[in-house]
Amino acid sequence: MATATEKHKPPLPLHSHRFLRRRYFNRAFAAIYILSFLALLYHHTLALSKETKTLVSISVSICLLIADLFLFFMWSTTQCFRMNPLVRKVFPENLEKVVSRESFPALDIFICTADPYKEPPLTVINTALSVMAYDYPTQKISVYVSDDGGSQLTLFAFLEAAKFGRHWLPFCRENSIMERCPDAYFSSNYSANSKTQHIKMMYEKMKLRVESAAAKGEIADEYISSEQERTAFSKWTPGFTRHQHPSVVQVLLDSRQDRDITGDSMPNLIYLSREKSKTSPHHFKGGALNALLRVSAVLTNAPVILTLDCDMFSNDPHTVQRVLCLFMDHSVRPNLGYIQLPQIFNGLNKADIYGCEFKPLFQMNPRGMDGQKGPNYYGTGCFFLRRALFGGPSSRVQPEIPELSPDQVVKAPITSAKNLTLANLVAGCNYENHTNWGSKIGFKYGSLVEDYYTGYRLVCEGWQSAFCDPERPAFLGDIPISLNDALSQTKRWSVGLLEVAFSKFSPITFGVQAVGFLEAHCFGHYAFWPVWSVPVAIYAFLPQLSLLNNMPIFPKASDPWFYLYAFLFLGAYIQECLDFILAKSTFERWWNEQRMWLIRGLTSYLFGTIEFFSKLVGIPTQGFNVTSKVVDDEQGKRYGQGIFEFGVPSPMFLLLSVAAIINLIAFLGGFLEVLRGGNLDGLFVQLFIAGFAVLNSMPLYEAMVLRADKGKMPTKTTIISAFIALGLCVMGSFMLRT
């Protein structure tokens, strides 16, 4: 019989949270900075009102005013993340004391891939195996793989993974393995014994078969070992192409029937390639996720969904339990719809030269949003309640057929003919016509960044989210190792973000009313990300061309207004640097992050903005491109050494090189002018800006002049850039002196 003390014993906590104390400093600093900017506006007004102004000087002043207004707007949106940062801690060790393991909810896991040559099948199956091996009831796990490339190679790789998984899953359980991604485990300092060597030999054999099949580009008869496998490939007829083919739904593992080598159930594993037609829109990754949402509803309909990129493998087998600590603690948030985990990247070099860690985006800013209504959805590593994708908490939207309802209980086995027929139907390319899919149901259409747009719309509908950031990273992903790939990725994001910024759901109009000022401006920071290109482009050229013509455009170093400019520049930079250091990063990584911010401003942000407005007026554009996950050995070696990779011709590199050359000419010219007794007091700010740009451009100068490897700047780009830079200097000199 329980004692009185035991009866009144408080329930075990599943999670705790605390607000960061530096929020008070952030608020005070923001107030001072705003007052300083108002003073800067007053200075701009004085500069424009001078009677002696010429047309050229007025134009220069207006350009600087525009640049500073854009800079202040974007700075103000970053402060919204700093007003109320929240840190959470979960206690998964208490979960099974509060909820029995048998009561854990079922989990559907969505993995998307689109091109077997840019996203190697071996990478994708490593991701799948890592989540199939979760320390979670296997009969409650269903892994769905969307292959938008419609490739036999991907299906073959998963047939091989299903066989290997029967050995890998019990091996992980018996040895309490933490790295349950096979490739990550065998690349670590694992303990070598006979069992480990045996499982490694099996993995290497599977790897060899998958890679040799990929090298041949087709699945020959020698790779097919059973009639069941032959049937699986039967839909690949001569007319089957990645852009025109019927839907393929293939159950590779059924938890009710398939067992591992110890007799325990295997998770469900389902391959999906939705129907494609050249005459029907397919909505890129958003369309693939909605097809997965419908097919999974028909076959398993788990109440919790995890979305993963194909290269984002699990690094912690207890991640689901950590997430359940938040979902099952009703004190977290009243309408908790999804939980986002940070994107952490595997293989970053020490300096993170391309700023691919995106520490503010994926780790720091989500804490700031968690102190309000919750972070955004970042496309991977996110757990949803299925119900959240079917309308708001108080405005549920029913799907067109009851089998897709989030409350529908699936009783038939996933291999039943009736369910598979329906699954193929809902994976059809015309199924969504005249339905609410993509607008009111599922992942939202209307932007290339379907993740950002979906998360934003869910919060606007009344759902809230939470940020779970455990000490051991839940997932580890790959990063681009060439500058062109890194910039192409952010250019695609830029187009999609502007599609939201200038839509009827714009965060600064619709968002302010739906989610409040601070949360809306956090979303607005991302939506208007590409407009960083405006001030960066102005400050990359205008002060330098004025410097070449000995034309001061900023206050003298002896003028009291100079200290205002110094405070605004140093204040923003020092605050950002301190945030990086406090987030357990390094000064070197912060420096490269700010360098990449400047580079993106002249490349991906600018070209993304141009592409968006081109689409707006009906000019054809490039569209969606998958970022390559294939690693070239030489590229990988240079990346590991911290050497920038330019190696391919690109218009983005051309503009970047032009800016670097003009800044170098301006700095050297201004410096020589000062040595000859020039006006250092009046030109100091311009000389500093040019020098700062030169310092950040060192990798460009090295790639243009000093390097001979394949990653150097293409010679043609260097020559054309030099001619354009000299032409701009001459033209600028003529215009500024006119």
UniProtKB/TrEMBL annotation:
Keywords: Cell wall biogenesis/degradation, Glycosyltransferase, Membrane, Transferase, Transmembrane, Transmembrane helix
InterPro entries, alphabetized: Cellulose_synth, Nucleotide-diphossugar_trans
Domain of life the protein comes from: Eukaryota
Pfam family, any one: Cellulose_synt
Membrane-protein topology: Multi-pass membrane protein
Transmembrane segments: 24-43, 55-75, 523-542, 562-582, 653-672, 684-706, 718-736
Subcellular location: Endomembrane system
Key word DNA damage present: no
Descriptive protein name: Cellulose synthase-like protein G3
Name of encoding gene: LOC140013189
